[in-house]
Design brief:
The protein folds into four domains: 51-193, Immunoglobulin-like, CATH 2.60.40; 199-284, Immunoglobulin-like (Sandwich); 330-519, no CATH class; 534-648, Glutaredoxin, CATH 3.40.30.10. 40% of the residues lie in helices and 25% in strands. The protein has helices at residues 2-33, 181-190, 286-311, 322-332, 337-367, 381-399, 408-414, 421-435, 443-452, 455-469, 471-478, 491-519, 545-551, 566-576, 579-587, 602-610, 638-648, and strands spanning 51-60, 67-76, 81-88, 95-102, 104-109, 115-119, 122-128, 130-139, 147-157, 161-169, 195-196, 202-210, 213-220, 228-233, 243-247, 250-256, 267-273, 279-284, 534-535, 555-561, 590-596, 618-623, 626-631. β6 (115-119) and β7 form a beta hairpin. α3 (286-311) packs across α10, α5 (337-367) packs antiparallel against α10 (455-469) and α5 (337-367) packs antiparallel against α11 (471-478). The longest helix has 32 residues, at 2-33.
């Protein structure tokens, strides 16, 4: 009997031990399945079918060795999402905590650019499929490792929302990543974390409040092309997606306040999301904006447009009219002060009239819903014929040819002899029309503001640019002694007039050459970068070629030029056609795409409009790190090209 009882107990104990062993094995298997395989961590985590977590070691920061960069990788099944730092209308943001941390001073969870989701009118912000949250850990002692439990808590949603958590033992962190693959993955997402920018990078210069909307206009010096802008107030309320538009360096943003019609807020946080870099900007409370903006708007754009027009006096585009300016100054040397001032005023009046006509033309074209371009009048054969006639007329007039054919009264009206006020007026018009085929520093900003604005902004900006172009003439009126540096008329004047006439005839020939190319099927020679291979880009068939080449890992340089764009020719001669630039392109295997806009081309105009540009020269660099492209300055430099090719890699 005793033996039977012992035998039965023995079997019970054996069965119990087998049960415990089996349970332990299942538990260990479950723990291993939810633990970091890369680090063989034994911390237990709940198993979720719809989301997986992993910890990636990045690097110890060289600039601050006390800081460590790691990444928390989240993989989600389709239709599931995890939230941003501000979820929006629903959801909870992810958080990190650390318990019993050793040698840990601080820990920061960083949030890459999110995606906007809409579900039955509810807008949320977050991530789907995969995301890596970069985590920066600061140590007290950079020579010691860290330990403690890292806890990650979040809410993951599909049709339902589920709270999730993930724990990780920091003492198990592996500090070696020999091939750097994990660091590359972390940096890919860290580069998408919005960076704070100050007032100089994205500068507010316009503010309007109407009904329940708030319109803000910025000088976009970073040239951001956002695909979304997130607007939050100081209470973390997220407004509905604003409407916005970008024109050159001008960024217009309209926020719908709806229920918050009182416009009261301590500050607004704007998060600009783009394909390259993301930025955050803080806007102070409305009362401060109101006090600043009334004077700020008009003064800021006035200065930009004024100096933009002034800069046109020194651009290559004005070389054809240099002869007109010079001969005018020579003739003013002999005039009395009254007539002297009148002649200059008629010249200024001609310039302002031209800009008024440009403003009227811009308004008409925009009202018709057409795309507007700067300098595209040189694509019109009738305009070219008129300018050929005008420049030839001035040239023959300087040679005195009309003395034998025209009555003295007409000569007195049109020539530089006598009063010649009509001639001064026409000189001002000619100067303006020939000075506008190219963009220039500040000109792009001013033109962008005008072409993206309302009727008042179009006329206000363009007329201010006219004042800027006239600024040297105003200075001569204020300081007439400037003219005294020019020698008195003599034999040298006869020779000088002939030289100036030759310059005008060369201008006529240049314009006739452009007209000939417009009216014939002569194809431009684009392969002139020191025999560097140019990729044939038929933009009519494929407007997205630069982006497609970039996705294959190529570095792409885009050059949009025209025979009538003298700034383009200067860039070619002194930068693009130099051996140094050719060597830079060859060394980096840069693919060069060139488009000629001498003739009208709707697809080139669409491409420029898509890039919020209204004129040429246009040069842009694409690459794996610049998938959206980086538009270069109007006046190119070798240093700038080299800098952005390096950044594009």
């Amino acid at each position: 009997m005793h033996n039977k009882l012992v035998h039965i107990k023995y079997y019970i104990i054996v069965i119990y031990l087998l049960f415990l062993t089996l349970t332990s094995l299942l538990y260990v298997k479950k723990s291993e399945a939810n633990t970091l395989v890369s680090n063989q961590n034994i911390v237990n985590n709940e198993n979720y079918k719809f989301v997986k977590f992993d910890i990636l070691f990045g690097k110890i920061l060289k600039t601050t060795p006390s800081k460590i960069l790691i990444g928390l990788k989240v993989n989600l099944l389709p239709e599931w999402k995890i939230y941003w730092r501000n979820p929006g209308d629903a959801g909870l943001p992810p958080e990190i905590k650390w318990e019993n941390g050793n040698n840990i001073k601080s820990m920061s969870l960083l949030f890459p650019n999110p995606k906007r989701f809409t579900f039955f009118g509810i807008e949320t912000l977050g991530y789907e499929k995969e995301v890596i949250f970069p985590i920066e850990i600061e140590r007290f002692n950079e020579n010691k490792q860290i330990s403690g439990l890292l806890q990650f808590e979040a809410q993951v949603c599909a049709e339902i929302c589920v709270p999730v958590n993930f724990n990780y033992d920091l003492s198990r962190l592996t500090y070696n990543d020999k091939n750097g693959s994990k660091l590359t993955d972390i940096l890919k997402y860290k580069n998408k974390v919005p960076k704070y920018v100050g007032s100089k990078d994205i500068e507010l210069f316009s503010f309007q409040r109407f009904d329940d909307k708030l319109k803000l206009t910025f000088i976009n010096k970073l040239n951001i092309s956002p695909y979304d802008i997130i607007v939050e107030d100081n209470k973390e309320y997220i407004f509905e997606k604003p409407t916005y538009s970008k024109t050159g360096e001008i960024l217009n943003l309209t926020i719908n306040f709806k229920e918050k019609k009182d416009f009261e807020f301590e500050f607004l946080k704007l998060t600009f999301l783009s394909n390259n870099f993301n930025y955050e900007k803080i806007i102070t409370k409305l009362s401060n904006l109101q006090n600043e903006s009334k004077n700020f708007v008009g003064l800021e754009i006035f200065i930009i447009a004024l100096f933009g027009g002034f800069v046109l006096n020194f651009m290559p585009c004005v070389l054809p009219v240099l002869s007109l300016k010079m001969i005018q100054l020579v003739n003013l040397r002999t005039e009395n002060k009254v007539k002297f001032k009148k002649k200059i005023l008629f010249n200024i009046f001609g310039i302002l009239t031209s800009f008024l006509l440009l403003a009227i033309g811009t308004y008409i074209v925009k009202s018709a819903g057409e795309l507007v371009g700067w300098g595209v009048q040189f694509q019109n054969p009738y305009f070219l014929i008129f300018m050929i006639f005008l420049t030839s007329f001035f040239g023959f007039n300087l040679l005195g040819l009309f003395n034998y054919f025209l009555p003295s009264k007409i000569l007195k009206i049109l020539s530089y002899r006598g009063d010649g006020f009509v001639g001064d007026f026409i000189t001002g018009i000619t100067l303006t029309l020939l000075a506008t085929p190219c963009t220039a520093p500040l000109v792009g900003t001013a033109v962008g503001f005008a072409l993206s604005g309302d009727t008042f902004e179009i006329f206000y900006t363009l007329m201010t640019m006219g004042l800027g172009l006239s600024l040297p003439l105003f200075l001569i009126i204020l300081f007439p002694k400037i003219i005294s540096i020019i020698p008195k008329p003599g034999k040298w004047l006869v020779i000088f007039k002939k030289i100036m006439a030759i310059l005008l005839f060369l201008t006529s020939i240049w314009l006739f050459n452009i007209l000939l190319k417009l009216e014939t099927r002569i194809k431009p020679n684009l392969n002139n970068y020191n025999n560097l291979e140019i990729i044939n880009w038929d933009i009519n068939k494929n407007i997205f070629l630069p982006n497609q080449l970039t996705t294959k890992g190529e570095i792409v340089f885009v050059d949009i030029t025209a025979d009538w764009c003298l700034t383009c020719q200067v860039n070619k001669t002194f930068v693009l056609e130099t051996k140094e630039v050719s060597e830079i392109f060859r060394r980096n295997n840069v693919k060069v795409l060139v488009l000629d806009w001498t003739k009208p081309n709707e697809y080139i105009k669409r491409f420029l409009t898509k890039k919020e540009r209204y004129g040429i020269p246009y040069n842009e660099i694409y690459g794996p790190s610049l998938p959206g492209g980086k538009i270069l300055s109007e006046i190119l430099t070798i240093k700038e090209i080299q800098e952005y090719i390096k950044k594009a890699k």
